[in-house]
Specification:
- 49% of the residues lie in helices and 12% in strands.
- The longest helix has 13 residues.
- A hairpin with a 2-residue loop joins strand 2 and strand 3.
- The chain has a 3-stranded antiparallel sheet.
- It is mainly alpha-helical and 121 residues long.
Length: 121
Amino acid sequence: MSTRPIEEQISQILRAVSTPVRLRILMAIGEGEACVCHLETVLGMRQAYISQQLMSLRDAGLLETRREGRYIFYRLTRPELLSLLIEIGKLFGASAAEAESLLNTDPHPKCCCPLCNPLPD
């Protein structure tokens, strides 16, 4: 439980998601989880840039990680944040379908992670 005033806590969250790329990352992770190579494939951005943005989101307490072999998977600490982001989009004129189209948690054939390309048993 934080001892900081609620306005500071809210402000920190809004600062953390204040860039379009961070919003895209959160939406690409969705309610599941994603590794950097998945985000790189889906978003079409360099790994180093995505990692830098993930670090900021993690520092803000919005993401947590899980390691599986050489892969680190990121997931939202509070998945309900996605609903809030979609509602904010609707508040400013985006349709629900348009906002939800940013959610991209499907496996991607060009991603080599075990979630996208599981090894056969």
